């Protein structure tokens, strides 16, 4: 099975690398590079491993094809007009994704249509982590509060 590494960062780049076996061990070779116009804070891959969702400073979620690095979708990851997306997490079914924004809001978004299906406030500090349960019935969030 192919091993792939995808990374993003504050340098506004996404790097797609594939593992290649060589005589001196395993090496990751860059296959695609995407340069965005916004800082990239977090990413998560869907259950099929075909798409990676990226949380962006401009409050958008950008979805890329993992095989060719092409952007498939871009939609609003926060309903507010302030702040940056800090976290993104795709549920185990691949149906929804959750985002956290620096305005302390959490949004649940339909992965395919980009429609916001729920928005929540409740933390008094930014959300630093979140995860759907395996049965997709609960979203657990972590914050400095």
Automatic annotation (TrEMBL):
SUPFAM superfamilies: Quinoprotein alcohol dehydrogenase-like. Gene3D superfamilies: YVTN repeat-like/Quinoprotein amine dehydrogenase. It comes from the Eukaryota. Residues 53-133 form the Anaphase-promoting complex subunit 4-like WD40 domain. Signal peptide: none annotated. Transmembrane segments: none annotated. Coiled coil: none annotated. PANTHER family: WD REPEAT DOMAIN 62, ISOFORM G, WD REPEAT-CONTAINING PROTEIN 62. This is WD repeat domain 62.
């Amino acid at each position: 099975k192919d091993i792939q590494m995808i990374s993003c960062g504050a340098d506004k780049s996404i790097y797609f690398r594939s593992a290649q076996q060589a005589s001196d061990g395993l090496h990751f070779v860059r296959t695609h590079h995407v340069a965005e116009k916004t800082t990239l804070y977090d990413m998560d891959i869907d259950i099929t491993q075909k798409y990676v969702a990226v949380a962006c400073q401009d409050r958008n979620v950008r979805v890329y094809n993992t095989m060719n690095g092409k952007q498939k979708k871009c939609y609003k990851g926060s309903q507010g007009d302030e702040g940056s997306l800090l976290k993104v997490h795709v549920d185990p079914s691949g149906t929804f994704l959750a985002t956290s924004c620096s305005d302390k809001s959490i949004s649940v978004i339909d992965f395919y249509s980009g429609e916001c299906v729920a928005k929540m406030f409740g933390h008094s500090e930014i959300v630093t982590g979140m995860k759907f349960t395996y049965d997709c019935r609960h979203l657990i969030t972590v914050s400095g509060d």
